[in-house]
Predict the structure.
Amino acid sequence: HPLFAQRMDRLGVPATIAMAQRARTLRAQGEKVLSLALGEPDFATPAAVIEAAHRAALDGQTKYPPVDGTPALKAAIARKFARENALEYAPAEIMVSNGGKQVIFNAFMATVQPGDEVVIPRPYWVSYPLIVQIFGGTPVYADCHEADGFRLTAAALEAAITPRTKWLVLNFPNNPTGGTMGRADLEAIAEVLRRHPHVHVLSDEIYEHLIYDGQRHVSLAAVAPDLKGRILTLNGVSKAYAMTGWRVGYVGGPVPLIRAMTAIQGSATSGICSISQAAAAAALDGPPDIIAQMCAVYDRRRKLVVSTLRNIPGLTCAMPHGAFYAYPGIAACMGRTTAGGQFLKTDEDFAIALLNEQHVALVHGSAFGQGPYLRLSYATSDDILTEACARIARLVDGLT
Ligand code: PLP
């Protein structure tokens, strides 16, 4: 009679975590490790947001909150969806969770069971397939290619859909590639979805504000209002407002799904930290120039990193148009050997050698389903980025 449930066998260790652990071990040995591995803004949470949290605590907002979110935050979310996404969601169509991640967990727990398929564009954020698998579902991958700007094409989606498909996950701007999808791209996706009325969509728009080159993010539910009844529009304050530790994400969607997800959350957590919810409401209602200022800094770092990487012989790097990741290709480095004697069979070998020999932590592309690439986050200082790129160049320069 084993202690652990069978679902634990399906709970893999994400390579991102494994890489972070290796970096910590090196640090513990006294090495100065530069980390470009984490998808986390290096900015501080805006002071006005912290003050709102302080006020909420002093005002007595310290009791159990409603499971689906405080009325004040849900109202701020409704205003945000209307203002920024041209989407009207009533309070009953909105739910607050412990980060965007819990939205995904709730949605799949409510709907995915053995036999169900979830279409996930590849490369993907590792949590999507991991959560699908916890509930016994099967991830089905739709490949996105650098030549298409890492966008999901209608043809790739069509080929992945079967009668067992329950969900499509869309995540643009994308982690790990920085790819974006414009209105015309989404219209093509909507056309496919109209032919397959059994498919629901989880549209993860958590990076919507981190978008460059004059583009504007558009929501699938706004492009295809006729499909709004089967779309969950996921967002959160982690990335846009540098609030990863506050753990506030939210979702807009059809009432039956919101109700089921609320029932799950009631059993799991009894709702989200009341003080964090007050902070999130202040962030969403705050002046938009805070986001614009951070975005301008990311944009500068993006150009710095991409132009530096492109100057390294043996590396290619598409210009990412969103999020804060670059996804350089390292095909020309495969089959070679580093100065430290590491034979590079895979992009994981490259990432490990880079950490061991140059003390730079990042994550190999095959951890996200597509190699040989590297994913590096440029949500860190210009100095660290410049030094890290110099170390990458040194590793590549030493290849024989
Ligand atoms: N979606 C994507 C694509 C992400 O990269 C992340 C965080 O890394 C999340 C959702 C979840 O963020 P949070 O749970 O902090 O809202």
In short: Residues 39, 99-101, 125, 171, 175, 204, 206, 236, 238, 244, 249 surround pyridoxal-5'-phosphate (CB under 6 Å).
